[in-house]
Amino acid sequence: MNDAETLVAEIHELLASDLGESAQLLADLTCPPHLHSPHLPLATRVSVLTAHTAVLTHQSQHRRALALLTDFVSTPQRAQLTGAQLEHIARQIAHARWHLGEHDMCLAQLRQIPRAHRSVADLARMARCAALLHHQEDAAQLYAELLRLQPRATEALAYLGRSPTGNVGGGSGSKVDGAVYHEPAKLAAARAMVSNLQYAGAADVLRRMRVQAPVAALHATCHMMLGNTRRARALYQRARQLDPAGLSEMGLYAELLASAGDRLDVYSLGADLLRIDQTRAAGWVAMARYFLCLGQLQEALALAWKAQGLEPSCADAYSAEGSVQMALGAFDDACEAYLRAHMLGRSAGTFRGLVQAHVRAGRFKEAFVYAKEMAELMPRSAPALAAVGLVLSHSPESTDKAQRLLLAALDIDPACNDAVAALASLHVAAGSVDEAVELVEKYLPHNDSDDMYTRYADLLTLANRLPQAAANYTTALTINPENERARVGFDRVDKLMHPDAADDDDDPNNNDDQENPPEHMEYADELVDEEDDDAL
């Protein structure tokens, strides 16, 4: 066995042992020289290509796999490849394009395989691509051809409107024209809509499908991005009942639970996922969210990094890091983390993270670019309008427009926390603290989280309504005892209300005037700075 054959065997052994990261490191370092070595037989080089592609596919790096394959067949050595080798590479290219959502190119690639050589898997994938592209006649022809090879292919039977006995019109609601798509095609279509932030349309498609774990999880993600947290939570729970560990959306589920302040549920989710499989990122992402809720930021950051090391293509791991970096005040690092998450899996959540991180870093132009793109992809969406309003609120010339956008967001979704916070900050910046208090009071019943009670208490402190502020800080701490901002705020208000109980010599902060806002307040950080007048 030569070196190249030994390399291929070692790569497959690592993949079989679920050591994908080690296999990728080995393949990236050693495969390229063998691929381009003129001293190796072409069949050996094809084996090395197949092994390297398998590693990249295992790591969900389909774009790199596609580039590797197309580069190989673009060289003059293509003329030396046998028909079987060309068909094998064509299937690999089609596989990569399928996972990238390039259904038209996937179909075109598989058409290069002679009809007599097409397998059941080839025909099934071709038919799915044609169905997703709404080429109904082509899809019907391909499914009919599939049935000749595999008479019990239920996807083909469902699409053609036949019963398992071969009769037309066997299924309820089925149509011969193929208007009723088979389940995998529906799920693929819904995933494509989700990738384009068309959450309402995807939710409508998924609502009509049979309840399966991937369907329920993706449906939950749609509702989470649309702000329907209760519905999202119920669907995530249903998905976990059907598949306790094999779902890629569990990182988002942890984020949903953490945003609601349910620390014990976040911990239970993370512990359960890790008990089932410690080699997947989702459990570590959940635990990172848990430690973030506790305020143990360095521990949370370490767990987010561990999740990234296990699955470099996991967008949720980088989103978790972005949240931790925001809490640490490392806004530049937060921008980088959210950008990586955005590149791996664009969503309303990554858009929101990018906008907020760039705003806190003082990069208003970059924040506006992301906010505008989000608004274009999600028209009349409360989070999108709030994102644009947040950016515009930092420009004195655009405050009126920002206020209109934020109010429009609250008309659509009264529970839009981002819109409430940004609008309250505008009132504070204008010196209208009482209006800010009234605003939060109005929308507090729609979002009774510890964060919202803390914001409300901050404003009450600014308005010098100290007993009320203390009561709301206490409410926030009751919901989340680890809320550091609420704890610091309560201590400050308590000292202001009971100055005789404090030792003025030991605590120089006791001499602060009540009219000065607390240094920990988020609103003080969000006030419009004169230096930012031309930021937008």
From TrEMBL:
TPR repeats lie at residues 450-483. Coiled coil: none annotated. The keyword rRNA-binding does not apply. One of its GO terms (cellular component) is anaphase-promoting complex. Transmembrane segments: none annotated. InterPro entries: TPR-like_helical_dom_sf, TPR_rpt. Residues 495-536 are annotated as: Disordered. Residues 502-516, 524-536 have a biased composition (Acidic residues). Keywords: TPR repeat. The keyword Cytoplasm does not apply. GO terms for biological process: cell division; positive regulation of mitotic metaphase/anaphase transition; protein ubiquitination. PANTHER family: ANAPHASE-PROMOTING COMPLEX SUBUNIT 7, CELL DIVISION CYCLE 16,23,27. This is Anaphase promoting complex subunit 7. The lineage of its organism: Eukaryota, Fungi, Fungi incertae sedis, Zoopagomycota, Kickxellomycotina.
